[in-house]
């Protein structure tokens, strides 16, 4: 009888210990403080080069924040968790994954989407979910403005808007390239290409000889180049992305058109030279958000050094923009002393003198960062010069 009682008591003790351990684990998990940031990045499809770079930048920022002790709010320490979704270079998918991140994953904020069109598609989801959304690279002026002219309350960007970009490119064409006459190629399938072109034309002091429009995915530009080949112009401006710009560049050089080529940040990817060929990628200038050859802040060089050490490669400007986007969210949380979505939104709207890798930034009334621009020169497919344009 005593033996049976001892066995029963031992069994109860073991069960109690197991339950206690379970309760302890449950309690620990419940008290674990996590800030969730959703990433909407095109890691497949036509925009994957940008999406992959931005995802790396966001992940690197989170890694460094956590390594430094996380984010402290009112005496409480939070670990940051990055939850990334592939929007597949598809606008419908961008809207869908944004909705899932907000409703299912309960993220505190979102970094992305990558492109203007995808961001526009995701705005309704962010607005309905009252969740701040910081796009690293959506450039269209319209993404932060509602139809009635009021600011989109939950939409922010880390890069400069297209009208600013086009204006500074025109300034560079006038003052540095000394181009009196230019031919413009524009991607007519997005606000990115047409918006930059409109701003360029408005600010440019010279003469626009011709404006040639193409669609994303076009591969044959021979007819357009033949049309302008014998006209008088000092530079070509390509307002679009590297995929088509690389082909235009190759076909132009093959036809003996060797004038300088000026483009926006969409040309700032190593794949431009892969498509055009290194031998054809000289006398090319593209707008960039940062360069260690002309650092806008003291944060640029240490960032590049740390990133190279971690990943064995240099970060792109898109990597840097996503990195800054995450750190601006961190800044907003710390400034507002809250992880609440509404408070983070308020904090982002009041970002001031933020020392980012891509420049010292202050958010304007329409959630656009005010900062300088860098024009990078390319020779034989390699970035060789950089100049800050203020």
TrEMBL record:
Chain ranges of the Leucine-binding protein domain: 35-381
Report the superkingdom from the record. Answer: Bacteria
State whether keyword Signal applies: yes
Query: InterPro entries from the entry?
Result: BCAA_transport (IPR051010), Leu-bd (IPR028081), Peripla_BP_I (IPR028082)
Pfam families for this protein? Peripla_BP_6
Q: What are the TM regions of this chain, as residue ranges?
A: none
Provide the alphabetized UniProt keywords. Signal
Task: Please give the family membership noted in the entry.
Answer: Belongs to the leucine-binding protein family.
- For this entry, the protein name equals ABC transporter substrate-binding protein
Organism for this UniProt entry: Leuconostoc lactis
